[in-house]
Amino acid sequence: MRILVAEDECSLADVISKRLKREGYAVDTVYDGEAAYDFLEGTEYDIALLDIMMPKMDGLEVLGRYRASGGSAPVIFITAKDALSDRVDGLDAGADDYIIKPFSFDELLARIRSVLRRACGGMKSNILRVEDLTLDTSSGIVKRGGRTIELSGKEYALLKYMMSNADMILSRDAILSHVWDYSYEGQSNMVDVYIRYLRKKIDGFNERPLIHTFRGRGYMIGGRIG
């Protein structure tokens, strides 16, 4: 999952971004409203965290312009303004949630998970499931057939994205844009490399493969093909 963090308090923005990356998210960080709008317009994000009081363009204007242009990514406002009227203004502008500074990182994670569940069609459970493969988005535990599978942060992020879009063919570009951020400067075949890592861990001990390759089109996770 790829997240935009737009916060003019640089130290807070950097802390949030580092913590989110540790949780397996791909994160882009900006410090003013104009940059936030440019990033939202140019990138397909799964969710954005917007501070309201930003220089050059405040969060309300950023979101208003983004929604007016057809942008649909979920947005959580992060702000020190806690009056009821401020919260109402934020939600009326098109925000999906609102969190008041100071806040705990665990609360922020819970709100992100909640908004993402709603964005994925109202999924109520924290468990993603494909056949006998499960991923608990709260604990980060992945199991197949009752066997716990240990994954690196990037492997987990890739699997979570694929399971959130199960039975859909995902192009390499789509995977790269959702699982890696703009700071990535690695090999062009990194998606293929991590798919191989996942295959070894997810399908290596099972006769029934769940990860499928569609040559020239991309990858899919799902049940039996054909």
Beta-strand percent range: 15-25%
| Overall average residue pLDDT | 86
Give the fraction of residues assigned to helices: 25-40%
Largest sheet: 5 strands, parallel
- SSE-based structural type: alpha/beta
| Quaternary structure annotation | single chain
The largest sheet has its strands arranged as 2-1-3-4-5
Write the layout of secondary structure elements.
Elements: E1 2-6, H1 10-22, E2 26-30, H2 33-42, E3 47-51, H3 59-68, E4 75-79, H4 84-92, E5 97-100, H5 105-119, E6 127-130, E7 133-136, E8 142-144, E9 147-149, H6 153-164, H7 172-179, H8 190-202, E10 211-214, E11 218-221
Parallel strand pairs: 1-2, 1-3, 3-4, 4-5
Antiparallel strand pairs: 6-7, 7-8, 8-9, 10-11
Helix pairs in contact: 2-3, 6-8
Write a structural description.
This protein is an alpha/beta fold. Helix content is 40%, strand content 20%. It has helices at residues 10-22, 33-42, 59-68, 84-92, 105-119, 153-164, 172-179, 190-202; strands spanning 2-6, 26-30, 47-51, 75-79, 97-100, 127-130, 133-136, 142-144, 147-149, 211-214, 218-221.
What would a concise description of this structure say?
By secondary structure, this protein is α/β, with parallel strands linked by helices. The chain is 40% helix and 20% strand.
Which key features would you list for this structure?
single chain; 226 residues; alpha/beta; five-stranded parallel beta sheet; 8 helices; 40% helix
